[in-house]
Amino acid sequence: MSYKTERDLHRMLRHQELIESSLSFVSGSEDFIRDNDIFPSGRTETDVMRGLRYPNGTGVVAGVTSIGDVDGYDLKDGKKIPRKGRLFYRGVSIEDLIQSCIREDRFGFEETVYLLLFGQLPTLSQLEDFQVLMARWSQLPGYFSEDMILRSPNKNIMNKLASCILALHSHDGEAENRSLENELFKSFRMVARTPTIVAHSYAAKRHYFDKDSLYLHRPRTDLSVAQNFLYTLRKDSKFDDDEAKLLDLCMILHAEHGGGNNSTFACRVLTSTGTDFYSSIAAAVGSLKGFRHGGANIKVVEMMQYLRNAVRDWKDDGQVKDQLVRILNRELGDGTGLIYGMGHAVYTLSDPRAEILKQFSRHLAEKRGMVDQLDFIESVERLAPQVFQEVRGIDKPICANVDLYSGFVYRLLGIPTDLYTAIFASARMAGWCAHRMEECCSDDPRIIRPAYKTICKRGAYVPLADRS
Fold it and tell me: What pLDDT, in 10s, does the model give residues 46-63?
């Protein structure tokens, strides 16, 4: 055995010993902490709005924005009155944006990014210039993929994306410049680069962890954002127009959702401290990863697989309801008792994003021979509210949210599950950047600091020698 090999072996053994001793040290600490009331009671006090939400389900107002508006109910005498959901980007209805792209048979994500960042719809010449800039900035800095992605691959693409965003700070000579002009420049550059980072991160993950061949495709300047993502992701770089247009539609729908969603709020909270662009955007990525937020689309796919395996006849409503009851009773699925893809903090009667995805995914589902799967998802959407009422006595309206259908759309496009939330992040980057600018360049900037009610018990300091 060579000296280097023997030295590495000893180092590895010492490291393993350190891990084992550390795990032994914390073993049993969970019971100790809970037995000593380290955690406050989960009971909601009358003056504490858990999750920043009032008892009637409405959110605590924490700021003002002109970027996105999520409208799902009316308030009358402090009570929520359900209504059909609506979503607006800078005052423009999401349905109008989508229908314009469908009618004119064109890609619309770049137009959506321009609208969110610059506050108005672009003229034809402005849009053409912006599309060129976006395509050119989709290239990553020299050797970035080699140094930041291939040398330190990660099984989780969201964590890799966050680390790459922080690393881009080193490639930006004006990283700490918080002027409006510079924030705008950083914003559309970041939106353009994100899909490339995601595609290359997945290529590294496949190579190093799944033992597949390594291939890295550089994005092309003659393709849209949606086209370039499919081009850089796929081994043969091939895609058809229907696929690219459906992905473009998904990205438009995910681009923005008001200032109250968790990831956007996280971005604004960090921005309010005066920190740099890359730190605040990376925080938003970390937030979106969570299964209660952007990661929910992966949970929907897992849940639907459980249901497909358990239901013999997908067209039998009784069988579908029986298995949904088992999910609520924690007898099927991941054991949380949650029917993922159902319910939303704002939408009551409908989520416009889910409605649009359901409508426009059917054409490709017919081409792929996957209509039966789409019909099955629609059955879950239709039957889940009945199950909630029968099992838990919940009689308020519960609608499908965008996650119920977005995962299915990604399956239609042949996109691996590992990338579902990362695609969400690639689209939502536009909204995050717009909110970052609104918070950063405000005329009256203030650090966001909510109050917390302290319930810790007061006690005297006990000398070390006297502690049992």
Answer: 677 666 766 766 667 777
pLDDT digits (tens, 9 = 90+) for 122-155: 999 999 999 999 999 999 999 999 999 999 999 9
Residue (of 371, 345, 167) closest to 257 by Cα position: 345
Check if the beta carbon of residue 160 is closer than 8 Å to that of residue 407.
no
pTM here is: 0.89
Active site residues per annotation:
344, 403
